[in-house]
Design a protein that fits this description.
The chain has helices at 90-96, 133-145, 170-174, 198-204, 206-213, 228-242, 247-256; strands at residues 3-6, 16-22, 35-39, 53-56, 70-76, 105-110, 123-129, 155-161, 182-187, 218-224, 260-264. By secondary structure, the chain is α/β, with parallel strands linked by helices. Helix 3 (170-174) links the parallel strand 8 and strand 9 (182-187). The chain is globular, with a radius of gyration of 19 Å.
Length: 265
């Protein structure tokens, strides 16, 4: 471990960490959109070793620090289950508590279905919540480092959270050049403001979203909590209807061409 930085505010309800792992002289090549496995030490109540947990890589293929053999992860400390009941995330708490210099058991990398398009000119629409931002950060940083190569292609991001303090990478995202990425935040728990979710922002930007949906070189990535896909799907359907298109006919084409990718957890 070469770094452990808290990404969310100290008063935020969620503790989300940016973890950097250094592989030294051990070759460990990864691509944007892949995941790596971490095996926490110890054993479960039955005496069996803890199971591996997968985490999306949050750094581009040339490392969190260019020229160094390292990888970044975005990890949320789990303290409750999906129903809000207390539950300890064995691996997430282990990772969030790691200190600089600690050794970690890692395996992988894994994944071929969420890979970033590798050809110049491709546009990317990214829709995420919480730690679903990890692969989006990897893709964005890859493009940022290659800005001077005139590769073309647009980046458009829709990122949802309860409030700015709860949103990973909020500060760094606001510093990115406007000509690199079109960023749209959706906050659902800001006092005095109406609740907004990523699907609401999609509808607000319907003209730009529809244009990208119908461009042959656009790739769509959705990553976040289970259930978000339905809201996004309904927003795309509404947007297509506004512009005289049928989403139920467009979506199969996007999937067939491997231009529509979803990962939820």
């Amino acid at each position: 471990v070469s770094g452990n930085l808290r990404l969310t505010g100290t008063d935020a309800s969620q503790d989300i960490r940016h973890i950097v792992l250094d592989f030294g002289n051990t070759a460990f090549p990864v691509l944007e959109g892949q995941s790596i496995g971490i095996i926490p030490p110890g054993a479960d109540a039955g005496g069996k070793p803890h199971a591996m947990r997968l985490y999306s890589v949050a750094s581009p293929r040339n490392g969190e620090r260019p020229g160094y053999n390292n990888v970044a992860l975005t990890v949320k400390r789990v303290t409750e289950d999906h129903e809000g009941k207390p539950a300890l995330g064995i691996c997430s708490n282990y990772v969030c508590d790691l200190q600089k210099g600690d050794q970690v058991q890692v395996c992988g990398p894994y994944g071929t279905n969420f890979l970033m398009p590798n050809h110049p000119g491709s546009s990317i629409m990214m829709i995420c919540t919480g730690t679903g931002s990890a692969p989006m950060r990897a893709m964005t940083e890859r493009r940022r480092r290659r800005m001077g190569l005139n590769e073309g292609g647009e980046l458009m991001l829709f990122f949802g959270a309860r409030a700015p303090a709860e949103l990973p990478y909020f500060g760094p995202l606001n510093k990115l050049p406007k000509d690199l990425i079109d960023i749209n935040f959706a906050f659902s728990r800001v006092p005095g403001q109406p609740k907004q979710y990523v699907q609401d922002k999609l509808r607000e930007r319907h003209e730009e979203v529809f244009r990208l949906l119908t461009v042959a070189d656009t790739y769509i990535y959705i990553c976040g909590l289970k259930g978000m896909e339905r809201g996004v799907d309904e927003a795309f359907r509404d947007i297509c209807r506004m512009h005289g298109q049928d989403w139920d006919k467009l979506l199969p084409t996007l999937k067939q061409q491997s231009r529509y990718h979803v990962e939820t957890y």
